From TrEMBL:
The active site is at residue 146. [4Fe-4S] cluster 1 binds at residues 200, 203, 206, 260. The keyword Repressor does not apply. It comes from Plasticicumulans lactativorans. It comes from the Bacteria. The lineage of its organism: Bacteria, Pseudomonadati, Pseudomonadota, Gammaproteobacteria, Candidatus Competibacteraceae. GO terms for cellular component: cytoplasm. Cob(II)alamin binds at residues 68, 146, 170, 181, 253-254. PROSITE patterns: 4FE4S_FER_1, 4FE4S_FER_2. This is Epoxyqueuosine reductase. The gene is queG.
Length: 362
């Protein structure tokens, strides 16, 4: 009887970690780090945030309880978390401040202008896991890309990829904050990386610029006031008191990142998948409001914009049109949707027409 072929020997842990980081760079990640699973400090902050109701309608933030901060309970056997960072700043996009300053155009958060990042990162993380398996044999693992109950920013900070800024986004001295994060939870005892120190100093630019004052304290965002939450996560009517502050932002908000001094070091993404599609980096509000559902589905295929659905897309655009300079084109577009089947859409259209009628936005 032939002697069974022994499984491949586990490489030296430090050498394996170095290879994982090299593979990550080959796969398009700008940085890869490794963290342990001790998130006790982050868990306390999460529980305080939930207790304050700052999560709004995002019930899923509380649904998993403390498992969100305990990777080894989420995926039993987890010993380490491989955290990866991928730049997404689209240099080809219309200048963000120019679009925000033109009330007739729609502002879409820069991360959402191209292919859905979940799809891009998930594929690269799966390939990274395959390379690890080819080197050491089968191992326990599970990948996440903003797709499960994982505290990815605290984990990335522990892995040395940056620090959590006062706006609650991860910041890196060499890359700012224009990047996505992804993780692989693994049952391999890899050496961990050292976290980096924070470098926000006394700067409060992100807190001061927030249109709705959603950053209620350094590192604390009240989602109920956050434009990203209101335009993407929130399902009902947008609170009337906050509608004027949304301006022309129809999907997400980048203001806190746009003013951050560290983003002067951001590197444009080399990924073709993140190049803006269908002119959405500076599209006309009237044009977008005219898309019927079939057109919207066709033009948002494979994009993160799909998350809101056509009804909330129209809701957001109605608010932006109510904040736009009054013109015959804007009024005609709103009147064309005044009888929309959706109560949600009709309410926001009526608000916009009333706002334009009283001359608030002239």
């Amino acid at each position: 009887m032939p002697t069974p072929t022994p499984p491949p020997a586990l490489p030296d842990a430090a050498a394996l970690a170095a290879r994982i980081k090299a593979w990550g760079r080959e796969l398009g990640f700008q940085r890869v780090g490794i963290a342990d699973v001790d998130l006790r400090e982050a868990e306390t902050r999460l529980l305080d945030w939930l207790a304050a109701g700052h999560h709004g309608q995002m019930d899923y933030m509380a649904r998993h309880g403390t498992r969100r901060a305990r990777p080894a309970e989420l995926v039993p056997g987890t010993l380490r978390v491989i955290s990866a960072r991928m730049d997404y700043w689209p240099a080809a996009a219309a200048p963000a401040w120019d679009v925000l300053g033109d009330g007739s155009r729609a502002y879409v958060a820069r991360y959402a202008l191209g292919r859905d990042y979940h799809k891009v990162l998930r594929r690269r993380l799966a390939e990274l896991a395959r390379r690890i398996e080819a080197a050491i044999g089968p191992f326990g693992h599970r990948a996440f890309t903003d797709s499960g109950p994982v505290l990815e920013k605290p984990l990335a900070a522990k892995a040395g990829l940056g620090w959590v800024g006062k706006h609650s986004n991860l910041l890196a001295r060499d890359a700012g904050s224009w990047f996505f994060l992804g993780e692989i939870l693994v049952d391999v005892a890899l050496p961990v990386d050292a976290p980096v120190s924070a470098h926000c100093g006394s700067c409060t630019a992100c807190i001061e610029v927030c249109p709705t004052q959603a950053i209620v304290a350094p590192h604390v965002v009240d989602a109920r006031r956050c434009i990203a939450y209101l335009t993407i996560e929130h399902h009902g009517p947008i609170p009337e008191a906050l509608r004027p502050a949304l301006g022309n932002r129809i999907f997400g908000c980048d203001d806190c990142q746009l003013v951050c001094p560290w983003n002067r070091y951001a590197t444009p993404t080399p990924e073709a998948d993140f190049i803006p599609r269908h002119g959405l980096d500076a599209a006309s509000l009237v044009e977008l409001f005219g898309w019927d559902e079939a057109t919207w589905l066709a033009r948002t295929e494979g994009m993160a914009l799909r998350r809101v659905g056509h009804e909330r897309w129209l809701r957001n655009l109605a608010v932006a049109l109510g904040n736009a300079p009054r013109s015959p084109q804007v009024l005609a577009a709103l009147h064309a949707r005044a009888g929309h089947p959706s109560t949600l859409v009709r309410e926001h259209v009526a608000w916009a027409l009333a706002r334009l009628a009283d001359g608030t936005t002239t």
